Prior knowledge:
Blueprint: E1 3-14, E2 17-28, E3 32-36, H1 43-51, E4 58-63, H2 73-76, E5 79-82, H3 94-102, H4 111-117, H5 133-145, E6 151-155, H6 163-178, E7 182-187, H7 190-196, E8 199-204, E9 207-212, H8 214-219, E10 225-231, H9 234-240, E11 244-246, E12 249-254, H10 257-270, E13 275-281, H11 285-293
Parallel strand pairs: 3-7, 3-8, 5-6, 6-7
Antiparallel strand pairs: 1-2, 1-4, 8-9, 10-12, 10-13, 11-12
Amino acid sequence: MNSIxxxxxxxxxxxxxxxxxxxxxxxxxGEIFSLLGPNGAGKTTTLEIIEGLRKKDExxxxxxxxxNSPEDFYIKERIGVQLQNSAxxxxxxxxxxxxxxxxxxxxxxxxxxxxSKMSLIEKKNSKxxxxxxxxxQRLAIAVALVNDPxxxxxxxxxxxxxxxxxxxxxxxxxxxxxxxxxxILTTHYMEEAEYLSDSIHIIDRGKIxxxxxxxxxxxxLKRKSIIIFQTENPDIFKKIFxxxxxxxxxxxxxxxxxxxxxxxxxxxxxxNIPIDxxxxxxxxxxxxxxxxxxxxxxx
Length: 299
């Protein structure tokens, strides 16, 4: 697949704060590309620069292999944008909102089909102020699709939604990919990135600190299992077994599960330090981020 967007040495500073610090990546046509990182990492600023909504200080953005100005009207006709915080006219209906936005473009998606695709038929004639959070997010994505774009930007599309509403949005995103759209997604939800992404770039404090597929990033840890348990003296287990403490639980990584588990239990018995609620899981993207930064995505 060819790169549909190339970002080279992108920088954005606010005084001494490096919001975007020398970021470089490329997005392949037809993939779901995710920027994964905690709140304040620079994800939204990066996206808004690429979308042409915010000025960059340095760097280059190339669309479709030849266009280097996101502000160009030709580019805006070919992209769709769902902002992290979308503001619509409260007293317009869902249908009126989509018709209004479709009138801004030379090319537009059939509004009735779009309402159906976004599962908003029952809310077609409802005012925006009457919609639930999940319905408003679906409307925001529908607005991003109203010009039938080749590239769709989704900035934290499921923040604040309940699990059921989040999975509905996930299914919509996968459907967009099947329709041939290129999706550029920001998220701080590890499970969202794992479920949706073809390619992930992990961002923290304005820098890309790792990139690859989900499988490649997890394999980079070179750990097969993580043992989790509770104890009255977590610090000693952290020190002896090179573990970490999260939410008052000890987490110890191992590439030899049986041996490590035996050693933990043996140490517990010999030193009369009880352990409880032992669980074992496979590594995930949260572990990758923690290994790289020393803090979790939730912090």
